[in-house]
Amino acid sequence: MTINHLNLTVTDPTETSAFLAKYFALEPHGGNAGMQMLYDDQRMVLTLIKARADDRDTREAAADKPPQVRYPSSFHIGFIVESRERVDQINQQLRDDGMEVDAPGPTCTAPGRSTSRRREASPWK
Fold first, then answer.
1. Of 90, 2, 86, 1, nearest in space to 43 by CA
2. Domain containing 56: what range?
3. Between β-strands 68-69 and 56-57, what pairing exists: parallel, antiparallel or unpaired?
4. Is residue 19 within 8 Å of 30, Cβ to Cβ?
5. 3-state SS, residue 36
6. 120 located within any domain
7. Could you say which of 13, 59, 62, 68 is the most buried, measured as most Cβ atoms within 10 Å of its Cβ?
8. CA geometry: angle at 114 spanning 65 and 30, to 5°?
9. 9: which strand partners?
10. pLDDT tens digit string along 32-42?
11. Which of 64, 47, 79, 40 is nearest to 120 (CA)?
12. Which residues in the chain belong to E strands, given as ranges?
């Protein structure tokens, strides 16, 4: 069995699609302001759907911060990459582009697997 697609609810599908294409090499395959589709290298489709008002968590919203999508606190996405060096390169590129991310740590569970958490301005929050 193979996963055909996964849907994520995001505040801005176009911005999130550009982010995932730039940093994680997902391939955009069209859409519009309300929905974007991307493929990974195994042809799994990731759809990004614009959050409706009832999907948003407005508890922490402030004048200078837009509302975020409500996700469970343990929500995350993991990507398999070819090497630890590539994990470090992606992490550095995120930092160079002004994003606040934790340095990759001992979360590597196997060669080429790691986690880099993005703390601020996440397009899928």
1. 2
2. 5-114
3. antiparallel
4. no
5. strand
6. no
7. 13
8. 55
9. 49
10. 999 999 999 98
11. 64
12. 5-10, 27-32, 35-39, 45-50, 56-57, 68-69, 79-80, 113-114
CA 114 to chain centre: 14
What are 124's two structure tokens? 């899928």
- pTM greater than 0.90 (yes/no): no
Confidence class of residue 118 from pLDDT cuts 50, 70 and 90?
A: very low
Confidence band for 94, pLDDT divided at 50, 70 and 90: very high
Say if residue 69's pLDDT is above 60: yes
Q: Which two tokens stand for residue 123?
A: 């397009």
Q: CATH code at 45?
A: 3.10.180.10
Residue 119 lies in a domain: no
- Inside any domain, residue 123: no
CA atoms within 13 A on the CB side of 17: 23
Q: Please give the Cα distance from 44 to 49 (Å, whole number).
A: 16
Crossing angle of helices 13-24 and 84-96, in 10° steps, is 130
* Number of structural domains in the chain: 1
